[in-house]
Amino acid sequence: SCLAVDRHPSKVEFDAADVFGGINQELDKVDTENIERMRDSIPANMRSKYPVQCYPLYSLILALGRPKIDFLSLDIEGAELAVLNTIPWDKVEIELVMIEVEHSDKAAIARTMTEAGYKEWKNLKDQDIIYKKN
Question: Which residue among 47, 53, 74, 101 has the highest number of C-beta atoms inside a 10 angstrom radius?
Fold first, then answer.
C-alpha cells in the first residue's frame, strides 16, 4: 500500500524507478534533485509511472486493529518526514522507529521525533536513524 503524505487518502503518481521508486509529489525539506537524478539513472525499460491510492499510516494501523507496534521502518525515498507528520502520536504506541534520512532534512526529522516523545537510539552511518520511545 502507498503511504499518504497527508492526513487523508489521496491518489498520486508513482514512479516505479526500480529501487529508487516513489511518489511524484513536491515535498518540503527533501533533496528532490538527488531523487530525480537517481530515478533518471534507471533505464526507461525498467521504469513506469502510474496512479496509486495512498492511505495515511494511522488508517492502516487502525485497520490492523493493533495500535501497538514494536518496530516501524520508513524507507520511502524522501517522503519520511511528510508521513511522520501525519501520525497522531498520542493515539499510537510505537516502540522503535527506523527512518532513512539520506534524502530528507535530518534536523526536521529529529525535531518531529523529539516532539513525538522519542530520542535517537542508534545512528546507522547517517543513512538510517533508529528512534526509541522515551
Answer: 101
Angle 3-112-106 from CA coordinates, rounded to 5°: 85
pLDDT in tens, 51-100: 999 999 999 999 999 779 999 999 999 999 999 999 999 999 999 999 99
Q: Is the CB of residue 92 less than 8 Å from the CB of residue 61?
A: yes
Question: β-strand 93-100 against 22-23: which pairing, if any?
Answer: unpaired
Q: Are 32 and 81 contacting, i.e. CB atoms less than 8 angstroms apart?
A: no
CA angle at residue 99 from 96 to 101, to 5 degrees?
150
State the pTM of this model.
0.91
